[in-house]
Amino acid sequence: MIPDSRTLIAAAIAAVLAGPAMAQDDSIKMGALATLEGAFTVLGEDSMRGVKLALEEFKYTAGGKKIELITGSSDASPDSAIRATRKLVEQDGVQVLVGPLSGSEGLAVKDYAKTKPNVTFLNGSSAAQDTTLREPAENFFRFGTEGAQWMAGLGEYVYNEKGYRSIAVLAEDYSFPYTQVFGFLEPFCRLGGKAPADARFWVPIGNKDYSSVIAALPDDVDAIYVALGGADAVNFLTQYEQAGGDLPLVGGSITVDQTVLGSKGRTRDFVIGTPSAGPISDTWDDARWQKFVEAYKAQFPDGFPSPSLFAHAYYINTKAALLALNEVGGDLSDGGKKYRAVLSGLSFETPTGMVKLDERRNAVADIFLTEVSEGPDGNLLNKTIKVIPSVSQTLGVSYDEFLKYGPVSRENPKCG
Hints:
The structure is a single chain. Helices cover 38% and strands 20% of the residues. The chain is α/β, with parallel strands linked by helices. It folds into two domains: 22-144 and 287-365, Rossmann fold (3-Layer(aba) Sandwich), CATH 3.40.50; 149-278 and 375-403, 3-Layer(aba) Sandwich (Rossmann fold), CATH 3.40.50. A six-stranded mixed sheet has the order 2-3-1-4-5-6. A hairpin with a 5-residue loop joins strand 13 (353-357) and strand 14. Helix 12 (309-327) packs across helix 13. The radius of gyration is 23 Å and the shape is globular.
């Protein structure tokens, strides 16, 4: 029988469609979203270095399939993160997405993830508490810890070892700094420290002029806790030093990260001795960290003297994505169900120790108590004071008890 024209046309269409489908079967589209514009641009650039470090380690292959990386850019605002995420998912067709970077972005992407149950989302470095603590998305995973976890041990250290009893707070006015301030102040205030509401100052991301804030800072406190990132941190630190400010500082994790310490043209001695805490320590002498630093320097000679916490977080989450793809042989044909089951139970070695997830898919991992010091090459580094092992999102108390603290905010905790 000779096929009629409709049969021939149908066969031709099927052949055309089959070609791309076959090609797609040999690759997996992975998205990476970071802040490549705005005040946090330098943070986003180092995040992408972390993604590429992991992909190079796996030779851009996982589960027997080629990984096609598609990047997206935001400016740290939730709206920009959602626009970029929609493009990656709905236009570019990514099946796995790593990101975003900033706290309120993560909250927005978590909610978006609930509308795309067949796409798997792994956090970048976004560290707002409620991205995973309350109303988590079943397809959103955070293998990097969050902002309150990053503060583990710092409140106690500042109170017991530094002897500080009263603290002023300066932080950006959004969800991640609320989380950091809570993580620092909860133990500090519980021990008897004070941080009254009128000594807490909140500024928008991208603030350039800190003169009015500096003038309003009280002089009857023992130190200033600063939770600013990127250009915001550099601007404040420069202006405070130029104004003759002499109060000791306590650093939020991103305030003394390499994205700030590695910046050029700022008075260096001013921040030496600043205590902080976070997911990494530049001077940790563990072989796993040293190997990561060496790989970072070799691949990115124009990067920072040491990888930032953003490179670290994106590396860990990208590596988790790739390890799980290996476990399922790159098979996402069931909408990623088997893949996400593997992710949920995944534990693995990272440059900073073992990481595993809790029941809300948030990381349990070691945290580092640090202090800014001058390195052998004259660059500023965070030296290790202490490692706090296996810090959970509920900071060692039960989930139900932890919820009684209430959501993080400008006022939580109260300790006037």
